[in-house]
Amino acid sequence: MQSYISTNELDKMLTENTRQLLEQVDMTLEFYMRNMERVMGVMESLPSATGFISGNSNEQTKDDLLKYMAAVESNNPEIAGVLIVKSDGEYLSNRIIQKSRDSLTKEEWYRGAMEKPEAYIFSSKPLGRNLFSILSYSEDEIMCITKALKNPATGEYSGVLLLDFYLSSFDGNISESTLGSEGFLYVTDSQGDIIYAPYNDVINRIDNEYILGHEDEKTVFNIHGQLYQVICKRSASWNVMGVFLVSDFMASVNRLKYGTIALFIGTILLIWFFLSQLNKMFIIPIYEMQKLMQSAENGNIDVQFPVKTDDEIGALGKSFNLMITEIKNLLIIIEEENKLKREAEFKVLEEQIKPHFLYNTLDTINWIALECGAAEIISLVTSLTTLFRLSLNKGKKYISVENEIEQVKSYLIIQTIRYEDAFDYSFDIEPGALQYNVIKLILQPLVENSIYHGVKEMDGFGHILISVRIEDDTIVFTVKDTGVGISPQKLEEINAMLSTSLQTVGFGIFNVSQRLKHTFGASGRLEIKSVLGQGTEVKVYHPIIRY
User: Fold this and answer.
1) Is-contact 439 419, C-beta < 8 A?
2) 156: which residues sit within 8 A by CB, 6+ positions away?
3) How far apart (Å, rounded) are the C-alpha atoms in residues 41 and 237?
4) pLDDT, mean over the chain
5) Local structure of residue 473 (DSSP, 8 states)
6) How far apart are CA 311 and CA 293, in angstroms?
7) Which sign does the torsion angle of CA 308, 311, 317, 321 carry?
8) pTM over 0.85
9) Exposed, middle or buried by CB within 10 Å (0-12, 13-18, 19+), for 434?
10) What whole-number distance in Å separates Cα of residue 292 and Cα of residue 280?
């Protein structure tokens, strides 16, 4: 039963492969035929061709038509010749010539085209035509296609276009397709007449009419004592036949049978060998690694897997050893981080003590000055205390605009006491801005620059204006002084520093610019304008924080 099933399946497989091969050849023929029809379709629509058919052509249009025919024949080497005949018997062709005086309109191929004017008529090996070619090809070397041509003026069919093409143009596609040791392919027309066939004495003993007269796809013939099976692929204009020896099929069955037995035995041996190697290469090492993993899971991280091979198990062992090493390193890092964390906590405790000690000391100085009636010292200490308190801000990053202004005022009180009669200052604050929070210590570094690099360096009395405005969703801080200003070269250097984030001058301005960029990106920025001898204006654009 199993042998029958295998034979049946092989028969189906062989039939299907042959059918696919016939389909490919049929598609090749179809391609050639459609290409010829396309060439003829273009030619029959040419003005020179329609003019010739309607009798309205002159020598120039005839010459144009012959040149086009020559171009078609040159560009399509499979085309043996092209000819156009009109109803009065006049014809045009470069390669095909009328043999006798008998009118070409009496030819069978002409009448057949006129009887079916809408169709392309295919004729294989058109023997007995009143035509011969200057290329001297024989009629059994070609296939002929004809098509009736319509006179556009009258709407009647008044001529026929004939095209000969070489059967050898698809010889390679058919001859290269083989079926077994002695199988072959051949092509017949719709009536069973052979269009193309390789040289073979078997083909003459195949009854094509019998094949085409039956619906069966497969037919078996006994030729020279051997059985041949013929599979037919039918088309409208031709049939593609595949022929192969039945003995080739039976040989394939035997090869399949013995091959299956050999494959079965080989598979059993291969499985046995594979299982033995699998046990040696994978199962035993994996069991050993499992025990090491359990040991590591129980807290023993001093284990190592002995790597003896470079295969997957070896790579797995290396990964296990690397994991154990990484665990050891992580434990060391964790222990070190815990130590640093404890030290940091102790330092935080120390830093918490220092501000309290400083505030208590300043408060004591303030009381002593109060008892002595030293009003200037009281103002100085009070401003310094406020400055420190708001600068530290309990370690918070953000501060209200109101406290930022208060911190700058304290700083300016200290500086005006220090630099008496050197400058004064004023504020222009938009009230609505006081409620918002900003990054702390924005204004103090800018005011410090205005003092030390602006008004302090000038001859005479200076002035510093601090203003705060809201523009759209941005708080704009401005620090403007009437100091000595900045030279164009120095200003260019400062602006370059602010744009490249590479500190080359003044830490204060650089620090403010960097903190704005890191917090707000391109929305937070710092701009400097200055005129040498007139003063400097610094603007800070701080996006409004809403939360």
Assistant:
1) no
2) 150
3) 18
4) 80
5) T
6) 20
7) positive
8) no
9) middle
10) 18
CA distances from 417 to 31, 380, 381, 406, 411 (A): 104, 8, 11, 17, 10
Number of helices (H) and strands (E), helices first, in the chain?
14, 19
**Which residue is listed with tokens 């025990």?**
291
- Among 34-38, 249-253, 483-487, name the one with the lowest average pLDDT: 249-253
383 pLDDT more than 90: no
* pLDDT (tens digit per residue) in 161-207: 999 988 887 766 666 666 666 677 778 777 777 777 777 777 777 77
Judge whether 283 and 277 are in contact, CB under 8 Å: no
Instruction: Count the residues in the chain.
Output: 547
The structure tokens listed for 231 are 């599979």
Beta strands in 112-217, from DSSP E residues, in sequence order:
121-124, 131-133, 142-150, 157-166, 184-189, 194-196
**What are the tokens at 543?**
């996006």
**Edge-first strand listing for the sheet containing 226-234:** 194-196, 184-189, 238-245, 226-234, 218-223
Helix axis angle for 312-372 and 284-297, nearest 10°, is 20
User: How far is residue 508's CA from residue 494's CA, in Å, rounded to a whole number?
Assistant: 12
Whole-angstrom Cα distance, residue 267 to residue 486?
Answer: 91
DSSP category for residue 472:
T
How far does CA 323 lie from the centroid of its chain? 37
285 in Cβ contact with 313 (< 8 Å) = yes
**Inter-helix orientation angle 401-418/443-453, to 10°:** 20
Q: For residue 426, what are the CA distances in angstroms to 320, 403, 416, 480?
A: 71, 16, 12, 10
- DSSP element (H, E) containing 543: strand 535-543
Using the structure block, give the residue that is written with the tokens 């049946």. Answer: 8
For residue 281 the two structure tokens come to: 């290469």
**Distance of alpha carbon 440 from its chain centroid, rounded?**
49
- CA 14 to each of CA 19, 142, 253: distance values in angstroms, whole numbers, following the listed order: 8, 32, 11
CA distance 224 to 352: 115
Domains of the chain: 2-167 (3.30.450.20), 172-249 (3.30.450.20), 424-543 (3.30.565.10)
- The tens digit of pLDDT for each residue in 408-448 reads 988 888 888 888 778 999 999 999 999 999 988 889 889 99
Lookup: tokens for 208: 């094509």
Question: From the CB of residue 252, how many other CB atoms can be counted at a distance below 10 Å?
Answer: 17
- The DSSP-derived string for 187-242 is EEETTS-EEE--S-SSGGGS-HHHHHTS--SEEEEEETTEEEEEEEEE-SSEEEEE
C-alpha 228/C-alpha 253 separation (Å) is 16
Phi and psi at residue 523, in whole multiples of 5°? -75, -30
Give the per-residue pLDDT at 345: 46
The token duo for 386 is 């406020």
Helix axes 2-44, 59-75, angle to 10 degrees: 160
438 vs 453: CA distance, rounded Å: 26
CB-based contacts of 73: which residues, under 8 Å, 6+ apart? 79, 81, 82, 94, 95
User: How far from chain centre, in Å, is Cα 65?
Assistant: 50
Distances (CA, A) of 509 to 225, 514, 536: 108, 9, 13
